[in-house]
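User: MIC19 protein. Structure?
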Amino acid sequence: MGGSGSTRRVTFETDDNENITVVKGVRLSESLIDRMKEPSGRQHRSSGAVNNEELKKRIAEELALERARRDSEAQKRRLFGKLLERERISSNEHLTRAILRERAATEEERLKAQRFAKQLEEKDRELKKHDAYYKEQLARLEERVKPFYSLS
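Assistant: Predicted structure:
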């Protein structure tokens, strides 16, 4: 760590996704690995050894960025889930209202049909009454006219 060169070796490998590298149980992003692979001339130390403090800083920054990204993604998923839940509840409410409206309309139509059926039965009874009355009147007239037919 300080002024002397570090003899510690860092080994890394690529996981199944080919974009995250595992270093002693720490997950690193591809950009950090690329920076670690840069030639030693671009690093702050001229001896070519990896500066542990700088490496720790980079790893901490990358981990913080990765955590922030994961937290952001998790928050987006939660918000999306809440939005989907609200949409589902809203659509269920609309569906329930539509079903209730249809039931009310169906019940109204059924009552209307019953009312019309009663009116039709009433008209039918009235017509039968009129028919009986007119048949009776016809029979009376025929009885009155019989003597005249027999005379003529």
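Residues 43-48 have pLDDT under 50 and may be disordered. Residues 52-150 form one domain.
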